[in-house]
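User: Assemble these into one structure.

Assistant: Restating your components, then the assembled model:
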Amino acid sequence: MRFTKDHEWISVDGDIATVGITAYAADQLGDVVFVETPDVGKTVKKGDSLAVVESVKAASDVYAPVSGEVVEANGELSGSPETVNAAPEAGGWFAKVKLSDASEVDALMDRAAYEAFLGTL
Amino acid sequence: MSMNSVGRPTRPEAPANDASTATLTGGRGLLQDEPLIFELGGWDKSGVDLPEATGVDDALDGLLRHDPIGLPGLSEPEIMRHYVRLSQKNHAIDLALYPLGSCTMKHNPRLNEKMARLPGFSDIHPLQPVSTVQGALGLMDQLAHWLKTLTGMPAVALSPKAGAHGELCGLLAIRAAHEANGQGHRKTVLAPTSAHGTNPATAAFAGYTVKEIGQTDDGRVDLADLAAKLGPDVAAIMVTNPNTCGLFEREVIEIARLTHEAGAYFYCDGANFNAIVGRVRPGDLGVDAMHINLHKTFSTPHGGGGPGAGPVVLSAALAPYAPTPWVVAGEDGFKLVEHEEEEAAAAFGRLTAFNGQMGMYVRALSYMLSHGADGLRQVAEDAVLNANYIKARLSDVMSPAFPDGPCMHEALFDDAWLEGTGVTTLDFAKAMIDEGFHPMTMYFPLVVHGAMLIEPTETESKYELDRFIAALRALAHAAKAGDVDRFKNAPTQAPLRRLDETLAARKPRLKWSSVSPAPLAAE
Amino acid sequence: MRYLPLTPDDRAEMLSVIGVKSIDDLFVDVPAAARRTGVVDLPLHAGELEVERELSALAARNRTAGSGPFFCGAGAYRHHVPASVDHIIQRSEFLTSYTPYQPEIAQGTLQVLFEFQTQVAALTGLEVANASLYDGSTGAAEAVMMANRITRKGKAVLSGGLHPHYVRSIETLAHAAGVATDTLAAAVDAEAAVIDAIDADTACVVVQTPNVFGTVTDVTRIAEAAHAAGALLIVVTTEAVSYGLLKSPGEMGADIAVAEGQSIGNGLNFGGPYVGLFACREKYMRQIPGRLCGETVDAEGRRGFVLTLSTREQHIRRDKATSNICTNSGLCALAFTIHMSLLGEQGLRRLAALNHDRARKLKAALAATPGVEVLTDRYFNEIAVRLPRDAAEVVETLAGAGVIAGVPYSRLAPQAGMDDVLLLAATELTSDADIALLQKALTKVIAQ
């Protein structure tokens, strides 16, 4: 699993990256009440808005940590957005992206680096 | 992920059982448990007596509504009970201090209400011949004169229906001016991070991209950052003055100069005009456009969320682009300019069907005439005095966000003083409810952590201010003394305990349904 | 001063607590160049009776709708409002409360909003309604923005039967937001032309029924054509009482319904404040502008109401909000809800039928007036007629004779080439005697 400074995580399997938000981010947001996932087939560039996650008092863009094409969106979240709070780094994933440039992954932080980064906030 | 707000609990924690306020029937003393109007059995009656109609024109065959609509009707005594019972579950400025920062909850004089109900104002149609509404046009002309004189600006567009509508009016006038001057390529609006949410929302609505301007440590616009961001793409800046931290922008004249030098216009959010009315004229500060919330500074009632009114004063450079309609005084009386032709050829368009919020114009003018030039100046002075008095008397127990120097009409505190108590700004606000006060604006502006923004207004007596201060001091001591339950359980004295906003947003139920759904229950 | 509680002694004591010498010390942040020492050049304070005298004199210079025969409509209608409505809305707890941001002490306002939303959804025949917008015209402009957000197609088709001031309000906002408008030529029965104007770029179609000429239209076919092209149908209604007699927008396939709610519970007030009704299909719930009130429970499981889905709104979403609206029309919505709760379905249907009945009388009288041609065939409580002379001149002359005969179409759209068209409305307040006086005066003017 790799991480961004914007609190997204990705987990890569072959050329498919699963994207979500970190436990820290989910905790900061509070109770998630709505998630807008991307349409399958959408092409995103690294840093583009990939999804929107809403709590009662905040709406946040989830940025694509890598470039590629959306191949799957987590449909479960529309009916049970609370999964983002319950399992942010597992069942609460947002979308799967087919990598167009695998080297982008290497530029992301590993867990130790991310945790060190959290310590600076 | 973009982090644009501090997460805070939006559902209640399980209350301690001993704090339960339940009774056997749901009623509590003077507070009745009141169902929805749809649950009172009014499916076959009406509280209005009307004669029977004789028939329907054949031409309407196939156009008539046959299915039940689903509207209950009740007799007058039942309606009075229902709505009076509901009214008793509201806080109101007539009950106690309502210190919502940025909202200017001042007393609403009843003379205003009486004047607005004169049939000569309330029972006239916006499209009846102008020769039959000369008094109404005269009133609009007089209101315009007061607003222009108080702000030192040459023109005013009266029709915007509220503050945000006024912002739209101002930005559309700016846009029209740029387009007329070959500057239509300017697509950026600059606004501070501390701005009201309406500012960036309006700019986006008007087709602009918003960039944020930084803030200095003493809560003002960062001039260096502003200067760096002012470029040939900038159409306007939107700055609130006094700002949302309750501070006067000391460098406002320089802000205006830099803005104009870059070819942009200065939109001032006038939500906080109450702090300076009669003492400072925005026209002297280099402002090009500013809305005035008649429902704040000029005492028209908030009515549980509206209606308001947001006239916009305009500089000479923007005046030609004001939206229709407007009133012109001529030799044979007043006329109403309603179309974008002749003298209004440059108008950017129309914002609403008719003449704006006439009912609010009457109330505002009634208030202005009552106070006069001298009284309005005293309004600003007393509003500022009251806020500084609160700040002075709470600074030893709470932490002012900007301790140095005076504030204007509102005092801003952060939550640093709550650190380690286990009590949050939200908890503190809810505990204020138990003490009989409406909470202050909380978590706004966004630039201050756990913000608490207190605006008392000038219509509070010293006695009421001292009561309020005593309550906040007592609560502050309780928080620091570790009486956390008092805060976490609060409110216990209100008609309801804390509400589950998470549930409301996850399972939106926005209307009553006859197919009696299961009662909502917390997950 | 009667609105200022502080005494000079209070002020002195408070300044000393603050630790400053004078009030000027609290205004030190104001640049010296902008500090004004004296009072501005306006009259000084005045007592209640002086203010009342001055404003009453202005009010007396207006000819009130109730003082004689009166036939103006065109987006604002004179109806009877029960006395209890104005009494309740003046209760301190409704009149002097703020937006219900602290739900524990605002259940009164919130429950009213929930009732209002339920009533509006029922009246429009749609699933979801908001807690009000400023008025019908701004609501129509918001609806166009919303439809364009949903379909992202960039163009709105505006019917020739849409009130010209609504057209301009929509065009003004659409122009700024980069949404194109295709405004069709004014026509009494304009809706068929709308179908021809729909194309692949159409984001939405805006149709009014009853339209500005009074024509009632079954918009079902327009809805089908719009939906086939991937566009949304927005149905505008300026006379909310018509919901009591005519098929609802939802029943005819509308995706969004917008209405001016002034007719229920609110006076003419020279054009404002009014109350915008806004409803739509449930699937578009998250694109609605303005506030929404929703049901929930409190910590003890009791039913309560809160503002909800607020992430659509400006105070959270800022530049990505669905609208910039903050203040809405709460107190007018309260008046609407009280009046509607008094009427109930029975009363509303009867009121609507009565309005139509009065318009039948009016139409018959005008049809029998030599030189007058009735243009509106299917009408509710408003009709358009063609006069043998300039309608604005006729209205001015009749005003001199004590009859307010209606709205000349040229007042709304001077360039439409319809200078001889007059719009007249009748309501339950229009008596047989009013109609007879109009007919007599009109006959005389036409004969001159």
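Chain B touches chain C through 222 residues (CB under 8 Å).
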